[in-house]
Amino acid sequence: MSYARVLCVGLVGVTGHLVEVEADLAAGLPAVMLTGLPDAALNEARDRVRAAIVNSGQEWPNRRITVNLLPADLHKHGSSFDLAIATALLTGAGSLPAGPLREVVLLGELGLDGTVRPVRGVLPMVAAAVRAGATRVIVPVENACEATVVPGVTVRAVDTLRRLVEFVRGQEPLLDPLPAAPPPPPPRLDLADVAGQPMGRLGLEVAAAGGHHLALFGPPGAGKTMLAERLPSILPELDDTAALEVTALQSIAGVLPPGSHLVRRPPFQAPHHSASLASLIGGGSGLARPGAMSLAHRGVLFLDEVSEMSGRTLQALREPLETGQVVLARLHGTTEYPARVQLVVAANPCPCASPAGDQHCTCSPHARRRYRAKLSGPLLDRIDMRITLRPMRAADLVPVDDPATPSAVVAAKVSQARKVAEERWAAHGWQVNAEAPGPVLRKPPWQLPPKDTTDLRRALDLGLLSARGFDRVLRLAWTLADLDGRSRPERADISEAIQLRMGESHEWAE
Ligand SMILES: [Zn+2]
Fold it and tell me: How many angstroms is it from 309 CA to the middle of ligand 1?
């Protein structure tokens, strides 16, 4: 019988599926038929595999060859099937014994010269292989480190098809994964570098503790970007589940540095305001690349100069922000990537962007209104805090009192506050206050006594706050109480929360 079967993995979004690669060699006119792959990838794989086999010193079987990838209804993308196809073909032709690779999952792209090239998404592929019961995988040497992140599997590496062939014939061992690179140093950006801006610093702390989205307004040079970039430095490290998700997404995007282990720090993505939709949301041919939205999953998405973004872009961000995932339209169906981000947006207070702030604004009232209206719709609606930063003053740059608190101190406070919130909402499955729905906060047992909510109800009656804004203030007040170690918010927390919601000026009030 001239038949062989080898195992591989196909990715759909972040989910891997075990794929069987079958090869059948029959008498007849020499030809290669590949089935179970999309048309474009099919021809490319056939050419690569043929050249790699010949250039590895192996005889090309001049028979009627059928290679089939199962399950047929699974849409397979990318070039990670090459190594499995070549192996199935050589085994089916009788050039290789079938025994040594039985139940081994093979991943890798082939170069025309027979080198085994790294592929995107090895981590989620290996995880899927293990879930499907595999205990041994062979991967490209550049990907071996990320494959070892997955527990319960033996990882071996190859650099060339020739090495794999010689291993199967018992002539040469496979490679061991390279030792992992040392973990990355702690973040360099520290809150101690930020001079002044007490409201901005408080906003950042509250955002970190409660998972709230944050908007920073202020003239150029006020430190909006400096603050936003330092949010990850006060966020807790990712737990095992989150770390695996984040590392898998970086693996699929092909941005995981070689030799890296699990990513433990919350990611930070700051796409430019002119970034294409594909780079923001994801896309591309073959295995879709996750965009900035998904690369910021479980971390921070910072949109600087958000007012410069096109309406179309802002609109496209809307749904992922609400659902926590990106859905990409593909040739065959859709691909989904997680995108649970903490959003920080920054904008100048008005179109003229005078560095001295509002006193020197030259905009017409109409221009200011139009500018604000653009942001208010899709984005600001979802943001709990809107903080207006003052222009920097000399006293900020040369502080007379104590130096600014460093990130490590703030991070410890944040971590404690998060613990309290997580315990409080454990029964509901929420982790942070930002996830608590307004109606729950307005009802017992979480309803606050009327004497503490006087200011809040007044702001609502005066039209300074919308009903939605009312709920957002409640959420912020819970986070302020958690940070200060109080069991529930008091009147002072509420009035501080109102300030965080509306900024020092009430310009962005709804
Ligand atoms: Zn202006």
Answer: 18
Classify residue 219 as exposed, middle or buried by CB count within 10 Å of its CB (0-12, 13-18, 19+): buried
Q: How far is the CA of 391 from the centre of ligand 1 (A)?
A: 14
Ligand 1 centroid to Cα of residue 367, in Å, is 8
The Cα 375–Cα 306 span in angstroms is 8
CA nearest neighbour of 215 among 10, 508, 477: 508
Structure tokens given for 195:
């001079």
CB 267 within 8 A of CB 232: yes
Going from the Cα of 443 to the center of ligand 1, the distance in angstroms, rounded, reads 42
Residues, CB within 5 angstroms of ligand 1 (ion): 350, 352, 361, 363
Distance 357 CA to ligand 1 centre (A): 8
Q: What separation in Å is there between the alpha carbon of 219 and the centre of ligand 1?
A: 10
Q: What is the pTM of this model?
A: 0.90
Which parts of the chain have pLDDT scores under 50? 505-506, 509
β pairing state of 109-110 and 31-35 = unpaired
pLDDT in tens, 303-361: 999 888 888 888 888 899 989 999 998 877 789 999 999 999 999 888 887 777 667 78
Q: Measure the CA–CA gap between 406 and 194, rounded to whole angstroms.
A: 9
Structure tokens at 94: 């009788």
Q: What is the DSSP letter of 420?
A: H
